[in-house]
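Much of our argument rests on the idea that a fold can be written as discrete symbols. The record that follows shows the chain in one-letter code together with its fold in token form.
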Amino acid sequence: MRLLKTLHIDSEMGWGGGQRQVTGLCCYLRDRGHEVKLVCRPGSELQAWASSEGIDAISVDMKCALSLATVFRMRSVIGRERPDVVHLHASKAHVLGSAAARLAGGGLGIATRRMQDPIRMIWPNTSAYGHWTDALVAISNTARDALLAAGVKPEKIHVIESGVDVDTFADAPSNPEFRAGLGVDDRIPIVCTTAVLSERKGIRYLIEAAALLRQAGVPFRLIIAGDGPDRDNLETQARELGLAAQFLGFREDVPLLLAEADVFVMPSLSEGLGVATLEAMAAGRPVVASAVGGLCESVVDGVTGILVPPRDPRSLANAIGKLLENPDMARKLGAAGQERIRARYSLSSMAARNEALYYELLGK
């Protein structure tokens, strides 16, 4: 097997499900003997991660998707590195990286689409999703459908679902000290979510649902892990509703949090697949999620979790309350979800399928 030189480009500053996929793929390829380099923004979470992992990170400012200066900077990087594969992992990276790769005249260009939202097929998107890339990876059938609706040729699209390191979450032990650090009595159920705190994640509806449960006298503690532009507004909303929600900010110990959780909630308004939900299922937690996008693929309603309409606090509250009142049902759903993740959404499977796609396309 010929080892490959791979260059991965991600334009995000923060840390979310997409970045967990990038890091998992990079580590897998490195451990397989491939050369891995990462292009990311200065001061980004990915830059810090690459430094800690000993992966060569090249800093490029990618604030604007229409910056010619950035395109030419990337072209210089690609021309110098001469990679076999240029893999693009976020929307601005798609445009900037695909243009730079074509100008540099080398490397297989692959873009991963992680969103279910419609694609505005105006320039430069028409080129980034058209002749500037050799293949497009969709992380779910929902993401594939968005590409097809935008006019992308079916033969260019390859569905490779996101994955998680199942054992990291399945093996995380319940930890009384961790729970005590949260200030939660072991008799109080924990309802939690882990998400980027943006409008698209629908956390405001979870807070409204939690307030309804509190009014009904249901005992629980709501814990929200993650950060983002909506955090201040969400904290204000919780205070105004008299809800003692805990906002933990960004956490690296999510497996420990999930090990303590009784119910995991993902109230997204749109979702390409939902890595945080996959992680909760890997931890064996019962899931309540919006019936949108890729969540309808990963969560089997009534089998691995409960799906509810988006933007519907009452339905969210009813589903959460049902699981809190029926621990046997919650355990059954959680166990079934964990088995589904092992069978279909492992991180190693995701990475291996991307590697196989590289070889398939390079062999054509």
Q: What stands out?
A: DSSP finds 16 helices and 13 strands in the chain. The mean pLDDT is 95. The longest helix spans residues 327-344. The chain has two domains: 5-163+346-362, 166-344.
